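Ligand-bound model needed. phenylalanine.
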Amino acid sequence: MSEGRGQWGSRLSFVLAAAGSAVGLGNMWKFPYITGMNGGGAFVLIYLVCILLVGLPIMIGEVLLGRMSQSSVVGTFPKLAGGPTPWAGVGWLGVATGVVILSYYSVVAGWSLHYVYLALTGGLDLGDAEAFGALFGETYSDPTVNLTYHTLFMLITAVIVVGGIQRGVERASRILMPLLLIMMTALLAYATTLDGFGDALDFVFGFHVESITGEAVLEALGHSFFTLSLGMGAMLTYGSYLSKRDDVIAVSVATTAVDTLVALMACLVLFPITFSAGMEASSGPGLVFINMPLAFDGLPGGHAWSVLFFVLLFFAALSSAISLLEVAAAFLIDERGWSRPKAVGLAAGLVFALGIPSALSGDATTMFGATDWIGERNWFDSFDYLASNWMLPLGGLGIAGFAAWRLGDRARRLSFAAGSAIGGIQGVYLAWLQLLRYVVPVAIVVVMLHALGLLEAVFG
Ligand code: PHE
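Prediction:
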């Protein structure tokens, strides 16, 4: 380890931080609503297969590359290739992707903060679905609200990342992740008491084969990147703070398991509430911001539940945002030799500025709200589209390609086994390598062809 680079205090710290990165708005907000829109059970099953066959192998690959190089995502490729290499482009893409994602992620995270404020001040005592719909519409389009919370959220994120690995990221994750799991469990316990729980269980785990479409498969695959924070070096950067004694496979499996568990728990919290209130599972992105406060509104102690839920959403978003910012900060610290405060200040400032158009995108009459940026998308949606459909899969392809094809086999094999009993088993190593060499690239290329609209003829 080079002098001055951080390192995790323990293996558990890595898992908590990595799980904190993985568990985010993707789990709590996006996964339930795309599951709802795709008809439930079959989609969930496909998603689980994608996590296992694509997500987990890349996760192990990313963490492994980081631990081998002990460098930022930009430094990793030349360092492991033994000199300047075109693969370095994958690192640059990763830093850019982190900046792009965080710029709009911060805006959505800001809504969760705003809803905490509303819940605390009685602003969620609205009574009917229409009023909650209107409230979400107002929140989405109000420039003052969006800019204020975007600023606040970026400040909080930056302060934690300036604290460094052990004092900032690790300490925050050690508090945020257990709290999040406790809150989820409390909400889940409550959800099991609702009439709609049985229906929800059937919806999420019943195998409704008729709802499988090519589109659903592709969406499930794309989401497995986003939800596991793969394809932009977040896991690679966190892996770079591991020591050679740490078990890469165990921590990768644990991180993936926690992320998947929380996504399923989120469904089992959201759907019973949705069904019990007589609402539709397929209502889209509003599921969290409209249905949840509406459901809580009718409950005894509903205020407390609303506060709990939106604080939870905020925590989940914060620990993901920390990892997004750390990728760019680590690059400036390692490659440019900057001090941590200076690196974080510049990275956060850039993200903040780039997020302003996203914060203003909710007003359709403005330049950024106009739906003509990429296709028929406003600025915010264009950034999300660019990052989720292009930058992450491309980065994932690069990382998998480098780890599976460019890295020397001896070094890779030794590193895979270092600190890990399972990693020493030949069959496990070969299975991982084959997945990374063939299954992963094919799956990613399919997603991209789909995004280009070239698969429509096949899948309809
Ligand atoms: N995984 C995070 C979520 O589910 C988002 C994220 C993507 C974080 C990429 C870091 C890197 O919300």
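The CA atoms of residues 32 and 267 lie 5 Å apart.
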